[in-house]
TrEMBL record:
SUPFAM superfamilies assigned: Nucleic acid-binding proteins (SSF50249)
Protein name: Replication protein A 70 kDa DNA-binding subunit B/D first OB fold domain-containing protein
Superkingdom of source: Eukaryota
InterPro entries: NA-bd_OB-fold, RFA1B/D_OB_1st
Organism: Glycine soja
Sequence ranges assigned to domain Replication protein A 70 kDa DNA-binding subunit B/D first OB fold in this UniProt record: 18-107
Pfam families: DUF223
Amino acid sequence: MARVPDKIKLIDGSRETLKLSVRITDLWFIGIPEKFEQAEMVVVDSDGDEIHVVCKQDQLKSWKADLKENLTYVMHNFKVMKNDGKFRICDHEYKLCYTGVTVVRQCNMEHLPFRKFRFVDFSTVIAGHFETGLLVDVIGVVDEVVFRYVS
């Protein structure tokens, strides 16, 4: 019997043998192609929960051609890290990093949602009730990504 996929909201750093069924909702590359480059992405599970995933340079060659926005995948085995950087992509407490044993397999899972926007009332922002350093929007522009965040 196939193992039931883990849920993103239940990732707590206690294990790294995760099996996730996800859709890549955002995918971007950082660095200089063919020199230093890493992929970063936001994935969403069937509950609409999101987590930040990083594929560093040493793993990127294996996966770069296979990773595409809006496609669905089953992914296994990550390094689970605290999501405590200066600027965070998702509000999940953890982020995932590909390792040498990470397995990624594209699967057709149309039931997985696309990005769910979580709009906040403007008065909440004006009142200062927000989390500093959390990226709240990514706007794609040809050959450029503009980051907007509340600080």
